[in-house]
Amino acid sequence: MTPLHPSPEQFRLEEVLAAFGHPVRAAIVRALAPGEEMFCGAIVPGVPKSTLTNHWRVLRESGVIYQRPSGRKLYITLRRGDLDARFPGLLDLVLSEESFGQAA
Amino acid sequence: MTPLHPSPEQFRLEEVLAAFGHPVRAAIVRALAPGEEMFCGAIVPGVPKSTLTNHWRVLRESGVIYQRPSGRKLYITLRRGDLDARFPGLLDLVLSEESFGQAA
Predict the structure, then answer these.
(1) Residue B86: inside a domain, yes or no?
(2) Does residue A24 lie within any of the structural domains?
(3) pTM for this one?
(4) Which residues in chain A have their CB less than 8 angstroms from residue B20's CB?
């Protein structure tokens, strides 16, 4: 079953900022920034799966990522187009800060 | 005693984003955006003082606000110059989203 994702008009800036505002989630955003879909287990390999479960939820519910289930696996993409359309410049600004996503 | 404030080179983007990423803190940033120093009790009058204590700490430790004690009162300013120097465009981008700080 595909989990629920907000539509861009449902995005709230505070929620997106809060999603970006954690070292592990920042590392996930950084890893997904090139744009390719990734297997969820390959994105931040050092972080335990149980820790990640909550982070996937925060990222998905705020609109930052898209989760595609395939069998028992989850594949993740950054919703760059939707984020750029809704909050122009935000993702580029955040990714332009070199330290962003390097501390996890 | 003046509480501890980070210097701009100590600011971390994830911490600033996390500070912005809460409805009450967003409302505080919005209220302080015009630039004037404000008495802490006048910024978000509907929010209980005990709730605010934690928010002042998060905002101060991330570098978003400056707290000036005067007798038993605290006066607050937005560190716009330091934020703009460290993360150019971020504060303007966040404030340009009309809904930011309206939900508290």
Answers:
(1) yes
(2) yes
(3) 0.95
(4) 14, 17, 21
